[in-house]
């Protein structure tokens, strides 16, 4: 199968794992915050190790130490710009708390305390509108992840598979974050499923976008630059989103245990590959 198609399929797989989070929110009334904390730490560990050991190293090998690191910082800056300009306050811990407490009743939709916008929107914003902010933030933040999966696949299918699995793992709580408030307050599974599905499909769109624009022109320099940029994106996501949330919803040393386990599994995978 052509690597272009494989890259798109892996990005689709990673993105649609948000729907698995939605299904979990329907049928598992008391998911363990420790388990989700461990999974997010695990995903961060995979991403951190593969970024520094594989992606960045390949970028440096292709374009030299200075250019490799310059493109790495470009990746960090890309995510920083997205972070400060696009709403993405989806607060996994609040969604998980709502689910694990088995809350039956929805709070006043004009004073919903579980979904607070970072810039302190007016309290009379209803829950469904706030959930759309959640969806929009996750949708946009998933686009670079789809690009990363596709670029990793271009380098090697094995690398693309590893990235897709790591991204899929941390997309599960994102699916929970989108679907829980909608399902809790509307009791409409179809509506919750639709929005969690749509939030993940952007990974496929990101892969398709990068594939159509850059894939025909890929050479060693461009591929090395893209791998370094992806490393920066993965590090930013791990340190700014996955680990802080993992620490906030887990207890004791669950987050760091997940991180170490993810790094070790990634180490073993690279040895086998």
- The beta-strand count equals 0
Mean pLDDT: 80
Helix content: over 70%
Tell me what portion of residues adopts beta-strand conformation: under 5%
Structural class: mainly alpha
Number of helices, counting only DSSP H or I runs of 4 residues or more: 9
Features:
273 residues; mainly alpha; 9 helices; 81% helix; globular
Describe this structure in words.
It is a single chain. With 273 residues, the protein is mostly helical. 81% of the residues lie in helices and 0% in strands. It is globular.
Layout of secondary structure:
Elements: H1 3-27, H2 33-63, H3 65-85, H4 92-100, H5 127-155, H6 157-186, H7 189-214, H8 220-249, H9 254-272
Helix pairs in contact: 1-5, 1-6, 1-7, 2-3, 2-6, 2-8, 2-9, 3-8, 4-6, 5-6, 5-7, 5-8, 6-7
Write a short abstract of this structure.
With 273 residues, the chain is an all-alpha fold. It has 9 helices and no strands.
